[in-house]
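re: ur question from yesterday

yeah so i grabbed the chain u mentioned. its 467 aa long if i counted rite. heres the sequnce exactly as i have it in my notes:
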Amino acid sequence: MKATKSSESLEMEFRGGPYVSVLPIAVFLLGTVGLVIAGAPAVEGMILAAMVGISVGMLFAKNFAAYSEQVFALMANRVATVAVVCWLWAGAFSGILADSGLVEGIVWMGWKLKLTGAGFTAAVFIFAALFATSVGTGMGTIVGFTAVMYPAGVVLGAHPGALMGAIISGAAFGDNLAPISDTTIVSAATQETDVGGVVKSRLKYVLIAAGIALLLFLIFGGSGRSLNEADAQNLLAETADPTGLPMLIPSIFVFVVAISGHHFLAALTAGVFAAIVIGPLTGVFPFERVFHVTAEGTVEGSAVRGAMSLAPISILTLLLVSTIGIMKSGGFLDLVMAKLRGLIGQSLRKAEFAIVGLISFANICVSVNTVAMITAGPLANLLRKDAGIHPYRSANLLDTISCSFPYILPYATSVVAAVAIQQEVAARYAYVPVVGWGELAPYFFYGHVLLPLMLIAVVTGFGRQRG
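ran it thru and got these structure tokens back, copy pasting raw so excuse formatting
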């Protein structure tokens, strides 16, 4: 059976018909689930799974040469190209900020506030959200804040589970909102819209969720006891350093420029230049820390490491775009969309629920929320075009759902990283407990509030825009 020819992709035939074109993405998902079960949900493993999937699909193609050329053509997809380019710039910028001592500066702010118990937990949520929004990385926030804020908070009377919930909640907030976050970039790119507009339209959701979460941390964030305040003060004195605080300026600059309507690539470029000027001028770091050539002839620096750290996810993006394009070229997506259109009809609400269902399923199957959006985003884009949903709305549904319950799945990379860092901290400080998924999951207040909020938004139409 031949697929319908479109302007976006060439016709492709498979032995067994259109249903066989799902093999590349199916093999990828099975491989990813296997990695999750094995406790190794690494992007590098997912890259290999995608490669195997594309190779398996080739075995069923009627024309090997046409299939191979189509894979190359699909990798030139504009959505993938936009995401990859943005990741390079965003990676360089976040690398500079993360290596500038900004987290130590934020720790210093918390130390000077002299908060304990629930107040400390609430402050950690705010600071983690601030840092994650500045650097655009939830994982970096979890690693940095767990290593320092977690042991200090425990001895200052914070509830361990709530404290970890505050750190992960702050990380999810920044991942959800930051203009340079990979989830923000991908949600906008897959819906063929601009980052600045998406961020502005998302504020109403994330600020409501963050406000309610902050209140819950103030209520439930204290353990009612302080083990040893002197130990906490000594720990904070060792790690707190206000030197990196000037680096908040370029991060605020990027945020303001992006939501002001300027292209996000221009905002990121301005941010990188601002960072490499403000850093050396204020004595935060020398320029050589950003970029330098070693005596061995290699290139090093925070900008280099930051940009290259996102190379694996960029490669995976190109491969996944190809697997999705193969389904379209082979006719499978046309069959799926026909069924969905029959079920949805002209209902905006049903179309939005379908998008929520697609991204939820993708996040359950894949432990990296960015990968889930890359997988489900193209389908969501077709649905929103059919129903006349504004691209900001569909992008917000993709991102908010991906930064809610997926952040706290037992096999999520955020949970795996949080437990691993806790174990390292516990090895240094005997009084620090290691809280597992069951103990921290109830306190992921940001995600617990954000998910029902978005479901209510779909039911009531709150924030809905027509395309």
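noticed a couple things. The two ends are 34 Å apart (CA to CA). also The longest strand covers residues 292-293.
anyway ttyl
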